[in-house]
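Q: Structure tokens for this one, please.
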Amino acid sequence: MDDMNQQHAEDDAPKRTQKDDKDGDLAIVGRSVLINRPRNELFAFWRDFTNLPTFMQAIESIQMTGERRSIWTIKAPAGQKVTLETEVTDLVENEVIGWRSVEGSQIKTEGRVTFADAPAGRGTVVTADIGYVPPGGDIGRLFAKLFAAEPNIQARHELKRFKMLMETGEIANAASHKNTGES
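A: Here is the predicted structure, written as tokens:
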């Protein structure tokens, strides 16, 4: 047998796209979206964490407790709520915002959002990568997927809502549209 067939090359794709999407005890999720708005505008909106509940349905509220710290109240499956305190760990103006939960938080999580100019002046590519310890481990993660509460699904929907909000000033949802019977 050829040596090439016996060797397994390291996967250099982002961890969130690999079959084994875990980094230690953290499960990695994330998505990218192209938004037709300037990078500095998107960065400024996201950097004010109190704006996040406007497009992230899982976040009930965020209270700033300092320049780099905040307390997040997150809706969890089965009507539960989770509170965690986060600290900003990486901040590069108009490029990167990184955060992680601090010791004593109910969930261990970390995240990073990047903002990059899209080719040909088409706006900004926003990429969010989030690591979290699934409540209940891998079984809890599978259960959450069945009820569309899994963070990877939420990440996709939340970035779509962020795009709608930033491009149009509002978030369309099924509840706001009435069926008129027209085709």
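A few notes: Residues 1-23, 176-183 have pLDDT under 50 and may be disordered. Residues 151-168 form the longest helix (18 residues).
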